[in-house]
TrEMBL record:
Keywords: Hydrolase
Family of this protein: Belongs to the 'GDSL' lipolytic enzyme family.
Stated name of the protein: Carbohydrate esterase family 12 protein
Pfam families with a match to the protein in the record: Lipase_GDSL (PF00657)
Taxonomic source organism: Amanita thiersii Skay4041
Lineage of source species: Eukaryota, Fungi, Dikarya, Basidiomycota, Agaricomycotina
Coiled-coil regions, chain positions: none
GO molecular function annotation: hydrolase activity, acting on ester bonds
Amino acid sequence: MILAWCALGQTVYLAGDSTMALGGGGSGTQGWGVFLPQFLTIPVVNDAIGGESARSFSDEGRFTNLVSSVRRGDFVIIEFGHNDATSGAIDNGKQDAVGDGYNITSIVTTANGTQILIHSFAFYIENAVDSLLQKGAVPIISSLTPDNIWSNGSIAPGGRFVTYAESIGLRRNITYINHFGYTAQAYNQLGQTTTTTFYPNDHLHTNSDGALVVAEAFVRGLLCSESLLRLKVNAGGQGVPNGCL
């Protein structure tokens, strides 16, 4: 069994939203996951989909499909948060119950007036983590990427979903990559004028140049972690800019 698995090799799977996905958020944009393969020695399957949250990725069966695809030893990078915020009086099918923890719920009202129970960001992700661990896969939790929003000459601090992602990593004793922090470090080094050229349409979605910087930032975070995936970073990846946080 071990020999058969080694012969097949390992794969990296990506689960996330438009900031990671092929095609990004529309015309002129690209997700950072598209550039990750050039820094690794093993293949990458990008299952990120624009507009998804941890909840919708779960409810639509996308986590289930991903778990069905992975083999023992595969890596799965999970990065959500941009679409997980509260949606107002009417549920949008993406918002999570507010709070940093697994056993948090909320009652929301759908467009047809039905009330339903929703769960926390951690609930949806940790359920996926459990299923991946049962398959023998290696989940990696990554915080969401920064928006092009600045405060006093630096990228504005991350919000609650950065904290939520870090908490999941600590609580489940799995690798956490502060992708927000590493990308903010890169942007701050480049400066606001250059960074703004990466955002052709809005403050969220990068063009290809920006996606490459964001991918490099993830690789830097990976190299500074204890994840076994860091051993799969190739020579090009070893040379990505900036240092450990």
